Amino acid sequence: MKTPMIGLFGCVAAALAVLALGAYAQQAPNANREPGPQISVDGYTYTQLQLFQRNVGAADDQSTQFPAHKIIGNIYYVGTTSLASFLVVTPQGNILIDSTYERNVAVIQKSVEQLGFKFSDIKILLGSHAHADHMEGDALVKQLTGAQVMAMAEDVPALEAMKPEGKPHPIDRVLHDRDEVKLGGMTLVAHLTPGHTRGCTTWTMKIRDSGKTYNVVIIGSMGVNPGVKLVNNSDVPNLAEEFTRGFKVMRSLPCDVPLGSHPGMYRMQEKYAKLKQGDPNPFIDPAGYKIEMDIDEAMFHAVLDQQQKASGGGAGL
Predict the structure, then answer these.
(1) H helices of the chain, where?
(2) Whole-number Å distance between alpha carbons of 109 and 137
(3) Which of 7, 51, 52, 265 has its CA 20 to 30 A from that of 222?
(4) Does residue 205 form part of some domain?
(5) What is the tally of structural domains in the chain?
(6) What is the rounded average pLDDT of the residues 119-136?
(7) Within a domain: residue 1?
(8) Confidence band (pLDDT; 50, 70, 90) for 312?
(9) Exposed, middle or buried by CB within 10 Å (0-12, 13-18, 19+), for 112?
């Protein structure tokens, strides 16, 4: 079996990143560095820790600007190497999805402006889930743009506790499962896909490009971070059931263009390298979406099985 292409330096750097990022890992303030269970999907073998490292990258990856680029139609990438941020452009103003860390807001602004858009034209700010590496910058983006900040109801308590430099977290509209956000002819649908956080949100929209309509899915996250307790979790006793509901929703979504809160979820760097005028758009990848769901769900069941056996509970979901 092949293993993910993570070099020795990358492994060391990413392992250090696990320590630095432990504070935000889902319900796991003391995320460990154990490899965790191993799975094989589509000819590749992954440990739980390797999937986590694939997503968060090394420490520098989280704040290093990745070249801003058009993905398809009117949706653009304006994030860092390992933390995604997406700009949806409309005639009535723009929508930003994921502000990432507060320190990255200037990086996102630079990317937006390099694409020829005004940062001040952001009218709506959305998020994927209530972890600092995805939504900590919300207050600063609102301060700079006046954007309306919207978030899933189940994530509101965690967001309200997120106060960089004491700033209260703004929430102008509380969203619920399948709520629609509309601006300038665009309709984005918020799907509650719980597990990674209580209100983890997967966004869908239809994008027109070259006379065709494509279903875009921005994966909130379905990963089980190292250290997360799926069994005997005192904070979220039914966490495994929440993940299961999330996977059911994810499997039901039609997807032509898979994106995600971490670029590793949709192999952004590999696809970006293939972007050439006249070539097929590499971001159109329905098979890639199914593979990512297979990876995440297989790892979820592997972690659950390991924890159930350790607790003496036997097989479960």
Answers:
(1) 8-21, 48-56, 105-114, 132-135, 138-145, 156-160, 239-252, 268-272, 286-311
(2) 12
(3) 7
(4) yes
(5) 2
(6) 98
(7) no
(8) confident
(9) buried
